[in-house]
Write a structure and sequence with these properties.
The chain is mainly α and 503 residues long. The chain has 19 helices and 6 strands.
């Protein structure tokens, strides 16, 4: 059940988003909070994971992973890009992120300055960067410095998106410093449902967040995050032994299932959910899988009976905006590599994304390392995540292997750097399927890879644009509660206006 609220002034708070009932915590600023840092931490981590899992369904469609089944009337808002301030996904992620950030702010403010609680402060700063980056990536300018201070700023002003990014780098560096300088601080232990209190892993998480912030601004001449990478290079990054997965004790119990599984798969009685029936494989991604002979296709998507004359079970997708899409019996649902069990952990930051971030950074000369080796590690981690064998053989295929030269017959002006970057982002795109729709769509906007169809982006003849949306409009809840300040941002066109890094 969704609760819409005045987020940035914290007049009332609730952790929303579909299926997010487990470990929910409500804060009433008119009554003293009796929560402990341990419980606040668990709730904030759990909600951060659930937002990543459930709030970006539409990006999964626009990124080319999913589309509607022919069994149901298509969503015109989705296929025609005719969404408004009350439509998806803006209200979901805005309200849910600010709700969770209010809890993170409570965790930070209640522990900051107390050396014995510095680990809680450090995690709060890292989660703050994790959630605020999503807000900037979706909306560009948002309330930041004046947020969560209702006694001083009832109507908080908006900060520039790049300024927020720059400050998030400082917050992450501060978190790393707290972890390093206070080895005797209270350990969060089991209240940390991501790393169980292993603070060295949180330092890697923070460092990987810095890398993500830097990579996102790769097209800009000024990039404070990139400049800050060297100072924490020795810490390293998330790898296949330090996956950031939330596990509060998900189980096959109503309200306690893994949020992705319970929303996009099956309920506690084993019945299929509506999203599982409505969303089918998108032809964009199934075509990529077929072209690359990618065995992960049978893990990201379910197989369907063979076509006439063919003995093979296949993955088959529909097209966004096509009013004659195939029925469920002839198209692939979300697959077993993503829907493993109701108790599966909920990924927050994956090793495969980390490896691909490192591969690109090494390619650009920002960090040490061999891009080809990191590229192969990302593929291997992605195969492992969905339980698919054959990563090594797949990575040596001619169309997948890391490029070492520009092939004869390439378009004039093609550079080796372009081919290598395209390879990295294409494999990153494949790996982010379903569980990180926001990152996949955001990276497509940044790089233009892989070559998703844009002319048109939707087969619906009434689509408002031949290309995909570039940002989200501010939600109606903010228009209602902070309208005078919001008006300073001017009129936003989600089909043409861009986030600051989208050059």
């Amino acid at each position: 059940m969704k609760k819409y609220i005045l987020i940035v002034s914290v007049l009332s708070l609730a952790l929303g988003a579909c299926k997010k009932t487990y470990l929910n915590q409500e804060i009433n600023p008119n009554a003293p909070s009796t929560t402990t840092p341990q419980f606040t931490l668990s709730a904030a981590e759990n909600t951060a994971a659930a937002i990543t899992a459930n709030d970006y369904t539409e990006y999964g469609v626009w990124a080319g992973y999913w589309t509607n089944s022919g069994n149901y009337t298509p969503s015109t808002e989705l296929a025609q890009f005719s969404f408004s301030t009350t439509d998806f996904p803006g209200p979901d992620c805005w309200d849910d992120l600010y709700s969770n950030l209010a809890n993170i702010n409570l965790l930070q403010s209640s522990t900051q300055g107390t050396a014995g609680l510095s680990n809680f402060t450090a995690i709060a700063l890292i989660l703050k960067a994790y959630d605020f980056q999503q807000l900037v990536d979706n909306f560009n300018n948002v309330p930041y410095t004046q947020a969560f201070q209702p006694s001083k700023f009832l109507f908080p002003q908006y900060d520039n998106g790049q300024d927020i990014y720059n400050d998030l780098v400082k917050q992450l560096d501060a978190a790393i410093s707290l972890i390093q300088k206070n080895p005797g601080a209270t350990n969060p232990g089991s209240s940390d449902i991501i790393y169980g209190g292993v603070m060295s892993n949180w330092a890697k998480f923070a460092n990987t967040m810095k890398l993500r912030l830097a990579i996102r601004q790769s097209n800009l001449s000024t990039n404070a995050a990139k400049d800050a990478l060297a100072s924490t290079a020795a810490i390293g990054y998330i790898d296949n032994k330090t996956e950031a997965d939330a596990q509060p004790g998900y189980s096959n119990t109503a309200g306690k299932e893994n949020p992705f599984y319970g929303n996009f798969g099956f309920d506690a009685t084993g019945n299929t959910t509506f999203p599982y029936l409505f969303y089918r494989a998108n032809q964009v991604d199934t075509d990529i899988m077929h072209q690359l002979n990618d065995p992960r296709g049978h893990y990201y998507y379910g197989v369907v009976p063979p076509a006439a004359g063919s003995p093979l079970l296949v993955v088959r997708g529909n097209q966004l905006g096509n009013k004659n899409n195939a029925s469920n019996s002839n198209t692939s649902p979300i697959g077993p590599g993503l829907l493993k069990s109701p108790s599966q952990p909920s990924p927050v930051f994956s090793s495969y994304e980390s490896y691909f971030l490192q591969a690109e950074a090494a390619l650009r000369g920002w960090i040490p390392g061999d891009p080809a080796t990191l590229y192969a590690a990302g593929i291997a981690a992605s195969f492992n995540a969905v339980g698919c064998p054959g990563a090594a053989a797949y990575a040596t295929q001619a169309q997948v292997a890391y490029p070492t030269s520009v092939p004869d017959g390439s378009p004039v002006g093609t550079t080796l750097f372009q081919l290598q970057l395209q390879a990295i982002i294409t494999q990153k795109y494949i790996s982010l399927n379903g569980l990180f729709n926001n990152e996949a769509y955001t990276e497509f906007k940044r790089t233009g890879y892989p070559a998703l169809p844009q002319n048109p982006a939707s087969a619906d003849p009434n689509a408002l644009s031949g290309t995909l949306p570039t940002r989200l409009p501010y939600p109606s809840s903010e228009l209602t509660n902070n309208g005078a300040v919001l008006a300073k941002q001017g009129t936003i066109n989600p089909l043409t206006d861009k986030v600051f890094w989208d050059k």
